[in-house]
Amino acid sequence: MGNILGKDLTRRTVLGSGMGLAAGLMPWHASAASRTVKVGSIMPSSGVLAFPGQACVRGINLGAKFAKERFGVEMEIVHADTQSKPENGRIAADNLIRQGCTVLIGAWDSGATISALQAAEAAKVPMVVHIASATQVTSQGFTQVFRFYPTSLTIVRQSLLELKAILSSVENPPKSAAVLHLNNTMGQSTAASIDQAWKEVDVPLKIAEYIPYDEKARDLSVEVAKAKASGADALVSVTRVNDAIMITRECIKQGWNPKLIFSPNSNGVQDKAYYNALGKYGDGAILSTVWYNPKAPDTATIIKSFEASYPNEWLDANSGCAFEAVQIVADAVIRANSSVSSEIHAALRKTDLNPVLMYSGKIKFDENGQNINSAVTMLQGQGGMPKVISPRAIADASLQYPLKPFEVR
C-alpha cells in the first residue's frame, strides 16, 4: 500500500510561551526550553470511523496548545489518518517514525492500535494509547505500549456493577436482554467480556441472545428484528456511532421499545453526531465510558478553550482522552528532559500523574503498560446531550427510567 498520509496529513507546531504547574506535572527545565518534541498522532480521520477520529484530532491539537501554555512544553504534532482500516495503523506508524516522531499517540480502533504497536515495537518508539479497549493491546507482550484507556473487561465489569445497582433501584426492571454487538476486534472482545463479567457480577437480567453484525453493515433491520423476536425487554449494544444511529432508527421503524438501552464500551450516547441524526430519539439510552470530570479544576477552562476553537462541536470522550494522552506525553517529556524515545519511554514507565481533565484515578502504568486506575462514568442522553448520572460525586443529572416509548416523543 502507498503512503496514506496524503491530503489528510496536517502539521501543527504549537508555539507560544508560558510556564505552569498542575498536580503531577513538573515544570519544563530551562536547559530544554528550545527543544521541540515531535509527536505522531494516528487516528481514523476518514472512513466509517471519521466522527470519533476527527474528534480525537481536535483533542490532540487542544492538548498540545494547553501543554504549551500551561507547562511550557513545545510539541510538533504530525497527524496521520488510518482511513478507518486496521491494517493502516502500522503503515501510519512507520511513516511517522521515519519523519522523526519519537513518541506516538493513537490509534482509537483496537485493530489499528495493535497494528501500529507492531511498528512502534520494532522501532522502539513508545506509544500512548488514548482509546482502544481490546485486551490484546496490553496482553501480547508489547513493551512500547502505555494505555490510558481501560480494557474492555474493566469497562464492562465496572459498567455491569453500575447496571446491577440501577436494576435494584427501579420499579419494574427488565427481565431479559438481547446483546447486539460489532464483530470486529473491539466488539468481539467486549462481547466476550460481557459474557464473563455478567456471571461474575451476577446481573439479575437474563441474556436472551448475542447478535453480532459487521461494522460495515448498511442495514441492521435483520439484527434488530432478531433482538425484538428474542422477547428481550432490554437492549445491550456494543456499537460505533453510525451503527448506534441505525439501531435506534430500526427500533423506531419496527416498533420495538425496550425498557432500557444500555451500552458498555461503545459510541453513540456520547457523540454529537448521534443527537444530530436522532434528535429527541437519542434521549434515554445509557452508556458507560471514560468521560471528563466536570468538577476537575481545569475542566471549565479547557471546555471554554475547546468551544472557542471548535464552536460547532463539543468535548466528548474521544477528544477528552486524546487531550489527556497529550498531557501524559508532556509529563514524561518534562521528567525525561529529553525528546529521545528511550528516555521518554523510561519516564512513561514511572508515570504517577493526576489526570488533568478525565475522570480517573492517578495515572500509573503496570508492567504490561496498562493504566491501573482507569475508571468509567455512566452517561444518559437527556435533552439532546449526554449527562453524567454516575458516579454521584461528579453527576450532573439523575437516571430517567424506563425509556420513553419512541412513538410518543
From TrEMBL:
For this UniProt record, the keywords arranged alphabetically read as follows: Amino-acid transport, Signal, Transport
Q: Transport: present as a keyword of the record?
A: yes
Q: Which Gene3D superfamilies match?
A: 3.40.50.2300
Q: Which InterPro entries match?
A: BCAA_transport (IPR051010), Leu-bd (IPR028081), Peripla_BP_I (IPR028082)
Keyword Ion transport assigned to the entry: answer is: no
Q: Which Pfam families does the UniProt record give? A: Peripla_BP_6
Ranges where the Leucine-binding protein domain occurs: 36-382
Q: Which domain of life is it from?
A: Bacteria
UniProt family annotation: Belongs to the leucine-binding protein family.
Write down what this protein is called: Branched-chain amino acid transport system substrate-binding protein
**Which species?**
Bradyrhizobium elkanii
